[in-house]
Amino acid sequence: xxxxxxxxRFLIEEQHLGHISADLRQLIAIVARACTSxxxxxxxxALGGALGDAGTGNIQGEVQKKLxxxxxxxxxxxxxxxxxxxxxxxxxxxxxxxxxDIYPRGNFLLLFDPLDGSSNIxxxxxxxxxxxxxxxxxxxxxxTDEHFxxxxxxxxxxxxxxxxxxxxxxxxxxxxxxxxxLDREQGLFVLTQRDIRIxxxxxxxxxxxxxxxxxxxxxxQYVDDLLAGREGPRGQDFNMRWIASMVADVxxxxxxxxxxxxxxxxxxPSKPGKLRLMYEANPMGMLxxxxxxxxxxxxxxxxxxxxxxxxxxxxxxxxxKNEVAAAVRYHTQAD
Length: 335
Ligand code: AHM
Ligand code: MG
What we know:
By secondary structure, the protein is an alpha+beta fold. 31% of the residues lie in helices and 23% in strands. The chain has two domains: 7-193, Fructose-1,6-Bisphosphatase, Chain A, domain 1 (2-Layer Sandwich), CATH 3.30.540.10; 204-334, D-Maltodextrin-Binding Protein, domain 2, CATH 3.40.190. The model has no long low-confidence stretch (mean pLDDT 94).
């Protein structure tokens, strides 16, 4: 790209085009700044003294890493005083947290997974922050969890920041999906991929194969047919990738296509899936759809699901449109 366009400039131009309000622009800028701080903290590794377990657990019974807790604090603190938010909700907090009374409150609700893929932190593999922005319902001053329970199609912005060999910020405000790369010397994100398009077809799938025996039959059948390759019913060979860090897997799909699946499995039948709807599946679903891909729970469009709990889980099938449709067909035909 000949001319460098910073995230700040990109957002101001989107505001001039009427795609975004000044308030939402500033909110996204604050989230991006917080992600820059998290990137610095993550990149220090063992030298920052932040590796390892925090000695606490979250509401979902998962062990929290020190960096989960630190990243959560960075995002909360950065977003407390801006005046654009009514409340924040996070994978790491049992309930939403309204903006403290000492600060002005705004009209947006922010949800995040502060450090997704955190099982990868200690092994120096890419991790990321995922976020979603909703509007606070009219007339609500003190938002509670129930005000967050809106379907993903109502998101006004969504994105992630990946902390990999380079730090990248992927964003949608409902007008395409764009990616920015952090220039560490200048301390700013520079637009490096405008209007990302995910190829409609793919020969690459991402799934944790170790769960195969726990899946439902149509899921097993779909993957068995991929594995059968050229000699099987799909008539072509497929390659597999699994980073166990959703941000990194989705980033690959935005870059070169593919299908990412975390299906329901019967290890714990009470859980409808591993990934969380509100701050993992919905924002990733919006980014992928805005890039021409699809996001389903195996049967329905993820962005149409009406949530009934802040931390609810959902099966996730997302990526190249035609491959997601193929996987969904195995399920709907079995029904
Ligand atoms: P986390 O939010 O606790 O980090 O869990 C979500 C992560 C995703 O990033 C990734 O796709 C998945 O868990 C990996 O799960 P598994 O270890 O079962 O393969
Ligand atoms: Mg997560």
